[in-house]
Amino acid sequence: MLPAHDHPDAYAKAFNNNSAWRRSLAETDPELFESLGKGQSPQILWIGCADSRCPETTILGLQPGEIFCHRNIANILVNTDINSLSVIQFAVQYLKVKHIIICGHTSCGGIAAALDNKKLGLIDTWLMPLRAIRQQNLDLLQSLSEKERALKLVELNVRAGISTLLQNPMVIDAMSERGLQVHGLIYNVGTGELRELDVGEGQDVEKSRVVAFKTE
Questions:
Q1: 103 a catalytic residue
Q2: Distance between CA atoms of 136 and 143, rounded to whole angstroms?
Q3: Which fold has domain 40-213?
Q4: pLDDT in tens, 42-70
């Protein structure tokens, strides 16, 4: 254990919190840690932003082991990112998750950077897909207020991620064979509220792709 301090720094505080958290969880669910030590069987894959204000387990009120997650800057999902594709494959093919959630959020720094379109360095490469979405919807975005513009790009980015998922053969197969569901959410960091996007049209697109990818 780290030595006690009257005013511990952020790391020391976080490390020392572990003992209290572990004891509390063991009291409320004595078998949880033993169960987790044997493996995991989450039913949800969460693809979200790395923002510190958007911790998926806390937002959803879930316990360790209940959600498999992948987070990056601005919850960008493209079919060329081996990192996210590996997570999706593991979650869908091996963990057999029943739901995939793509969640964007308000006050997103990545969204703001894409809208500003300023030179930022390495992150510019990562934001290219998001800036492409901005460019494709430039007339719509410019017709909105600054606040509305940011929220609309959050939504468009989530929908783009859903579209990417629905081009993934593993996801398509799991949807048709065992009822995997895909969801788009937006989290309001100022209120703690989740809002679900209507992605029904995307599910219809999935049906046509089942036929397109079907093999004998």
A1: no
A2: 14
A3: Beta-carbonic Anhydrase; Chain A (3.40.1050)
A4: 999 999 999 999 999 999 999 999 999 99
